[in-house]
């Protein structure tokens, strides 16, 4: 019997099986489909050997039995083809019901092929002396290879049609596998004594293993936990099955190990990893260097497990449990409040980033309101991007009245976004999100460009205007190339920098002071002036005025109102006015809404008034008409 090649194939399969089984694995549908391919191929090679033996000893075993075994080998080829198709469909049909429906059709096709293979005749081709069988042929073989060809064509059509849904590496691996099998079939067809189709199938399985199905690729090598890629695949599969699950994120901030000496930290870290690996009814993942995930598919007992984990951390680590590690905990009790794996990961990142939510707690349970907030944030991000791309960013101008000249001499430029329906979205809705997402830099440049264009097309001096104020966000103040970018914009529109006054806030001057001062120095040298905005909020401190090279101080609306509502605030504001005047700086009082407030501010010696008493922020055309009416 010439079974050496088949035996080599079985040895190869067994070696792969050994390495596969000794690795830790997650229960993924792709891995189950791979095992189906593995067993189908191993059975195919084994039955191939048996069929050769049955044919060799057909006179002893009987001719009908030999042909039955030979046909059974042909049937196993259909099983391999079906398993290949099933393996491909796992990526395409992620919803279990659809997957089962599609596979039911393919199984029916296979059963028809099996019945036909057993029903039709099988013949032998003998050597020239008639003593030995060269190969089998006839209707049974043709049916088998015809059905296998149908399956292969189906696989190729699916790969082309559903290209976007299929893992590119899986598509490549399956193509290599099919190519090996086709080449092996052609060689065996041309050289009938070389029975290598089964061995070709073993080579194909090895390709799948090396490129995709090696469980080690899902394991983080440093910790031994499953990695972020495995986390994504596992959660994606759970969502596809519409299975609710719970997620616990264990976050090790810099302060987590502050009570542990440096020489102990790595050992304790590995002790924690070993504990996480042994949590029952759960999988543990390392998502980032400082972030671990535990996923529970039994949401009923998840809360109990979470409390057990936290209790274990409180009991201490190391020798005699004497070292305390204090991570932050983010717990999502029901993942079905979101709809995909990416959203879960985005949710965790969002909560970690949101210090207001998390700073005072070591444990946070993420509920639906947090998800709704993120969805709203995504909608606003899309709104901002769409507005910037389609020129729906607008600038409104609020007049600033000079008490010394008794007329409007400047204005503050305020950004607005116009929705697709024509409605105006105020900055309170989108500014914070633009800052968090980093889009504030582009948005700020667009606004500044529109202001420069307004100054170019509407010379300020003809309206008795001295300058336009433009706000800078905290993020912009910390941007290293702010001065360079704004100077380029002013040069692009040919705007004299004396018409520009940039507003900074106290928080900006504390968060990125060195960068801000460098930008201010370059812009002041170019001819731009600065105001300190929102004085009277946050960390109000006159030292900011001393440190910042500003010409104007703007009192926040709340400070203006406090003057009329709080006796202590009244004395504080009067003292601040006296000191600011002593520095030869001008003052703008915001939020003035009544004649009484205006007269009081004027009596206090405040040189500029801004508020609804004179005008609300106006669109550009209305602002121009406002100025023309007062010329």
Quick rundown:
58% of the residues lie in helices and 14% in strands.
Tell me about this structure:
The relative contact order is 0.05. A hairpin with a 4-residue loop joins strand 8 (393-402) and strand 9. This protein starts with a helix and ends with a helix. It has 25 helices and 17 strands. Helix 4 packs antiparallel against helix 5 and helix 5 (96-119) packs antiparallel against helix 6 (139-161). The model has no long low-confidence stretch (mean pLDDT 87). The strands form 3 sheets. It has an 8-stranded mixed beta barrel, surrounded by 7 helices. Helix content is 58%, strand content 14%. It has 3 domains: 4-216, Rhopdopsin 7-helix transmembrane proteins, CATH 1.20.1070.10; 219-366, Alpha-Beta Plaits (2-Layer Sandwich), CATH 3.30.70; 377-629, TIM Barrel (Alpha-Beta Barrel), CATH 3.20.20.450. It has 631 residues and is an alpha/beta fold.
Query: Which fold name is given in CATH as the topology of the largest domain?
Result: TIM Barrel
Spatial arrangement of strands, main beta sheet: 8-9-11-12-13-14-15-16
Number of discrete domains: 3
Structural class: alpha/beta
Number of strands: 17
CATH architecture call of the largest domain: Alpha-Beta Barrel
CATH class of the largest domain: Alpha Beta
What is the straight-line distance between the termini? 109 Å
Strand fraction band? 5-15%
Q: Uncertain spans, ≥5 residues at pLDDT below 50?
A: none
């Amino acid at each position: 019997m010439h079974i050496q090649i088949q035996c080599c194939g079985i040895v190869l399969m067994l070696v792969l099986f050994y390495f596969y089984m000794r690795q830790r694995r997650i229960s993924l549908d792709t891995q189950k489909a791979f095992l189906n391919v593995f067993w189908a191929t191993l059975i195919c090679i084994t039955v191939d050997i048996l069929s050769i033996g049955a044919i060799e000893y057909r006179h002893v075993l009987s001719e009908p039995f030999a042909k039955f075994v030979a046909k059974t080998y042909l049937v196993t080829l259909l099983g391999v083809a079906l398993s290949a198709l099933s393996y491909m469909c796992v990526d395409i049909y992620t919803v279990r019901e659809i997957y089962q429906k599609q596979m039911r059709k393919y199984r029916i096709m296979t059963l028809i092929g099996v019945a036909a293979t057993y029903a039709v005749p099988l013949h032998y081709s003998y050597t020239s002396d008639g003593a030995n069988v060269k190969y089998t042929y006839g209707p049974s073989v043709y049916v088998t290879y015809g059905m296998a060809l149908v399956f292969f064509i189906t696989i190729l059509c699916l790969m082309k049609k559903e290209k976007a849904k299929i893992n590119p590496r899986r598509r490549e691996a399956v193509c290599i596998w099919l190519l090996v099998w086709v080449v092996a079939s052609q060689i065996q067809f041309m050289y009938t004594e070389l029975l290598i189709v089964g061995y070709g199938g073993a080579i194909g399985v090895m390709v799948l293993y090396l490129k995709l199905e090696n469980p080690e690729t899902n394991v983080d090598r440093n910790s031994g936990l499953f990695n972020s890629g495995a986390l994504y695949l596992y959660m994606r599969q759970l969502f596809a099955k519409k299975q609710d699950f719970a997620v616990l994120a264990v976050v090790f901030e810099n302060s987590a190990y502050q009570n542990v000496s440096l020489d102990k930290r790595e050992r304790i870290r590995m002790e924690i990893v070993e504990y996480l690996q042994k949590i029952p009814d759960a999988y543990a993942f390392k998502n980032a260097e400082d972030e671990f995930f535990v996923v529970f598919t039994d949401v009923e007992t998840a809360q109990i497990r979470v409390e057990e984990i936290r209790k274990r951390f409180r009991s201490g680590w190391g020798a005699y449990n004497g070292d305390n590690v204090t991570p932050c905990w983010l717990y999502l009790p029901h993942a079905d409040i979101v709809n995909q794996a990416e959203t879960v990961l985005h949710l965790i990142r969002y909560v970690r980033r949101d210090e207001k939510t998390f700073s005072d707690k070591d444990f946070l349970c993420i509920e639906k309101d947090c998800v709704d907030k993120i969805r709203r944030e995504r909608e606003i991000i899309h709104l901002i991007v769409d507005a910037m791309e389609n020129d729906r960013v607008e600038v409104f101008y609020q007049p600033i009245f000079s008490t010394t000249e008794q007329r409007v001499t400047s204005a503050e430029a305020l950004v607005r976004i116009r929705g697709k329906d024509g409605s105006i979205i105020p900055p309170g809705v989108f500014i914070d999100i633009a800052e968090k997402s980093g889009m504030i830099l582009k948005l700020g440049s667009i606004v500044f460009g529109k202001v420069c264009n307004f100054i170019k097309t509407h010379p300020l001096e003809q309206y008795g205007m001295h300058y336009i104020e433009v706000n800078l966000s905290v993020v912009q103040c910390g941007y290293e190339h702010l001065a360079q970018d704004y100077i380029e914009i002013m040069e692009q529109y040919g705007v004299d920098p004396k018409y520009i006054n940039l507003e900074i806030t106290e928080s900006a001057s504390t968060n990125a002071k060195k960068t801000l001062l460098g930008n201010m120095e370059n812009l002041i040298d170019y001819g731009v002036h600065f105001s300190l905005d929102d004085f009277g909020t946050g960390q109000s401190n006159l030292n900011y005025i001393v440190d910042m090279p500003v010409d104007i101080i703007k009192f926040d609306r709340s400070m203006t109102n406090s003057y009329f509502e709080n006796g202590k605030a009244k004395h504080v504001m009067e003292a601040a006015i006296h000191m600011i005047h002593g520095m030869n700086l001008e003052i703008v009082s915001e939020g003035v809404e009544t004649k009484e407030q205006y007269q009081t501010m004027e009596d206090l010696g405040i040189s500029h008034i801004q508020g609804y008493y004179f005008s609300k922020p106006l669109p550009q055309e209305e602002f121009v008409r406002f100025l023309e009416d007062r010329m």
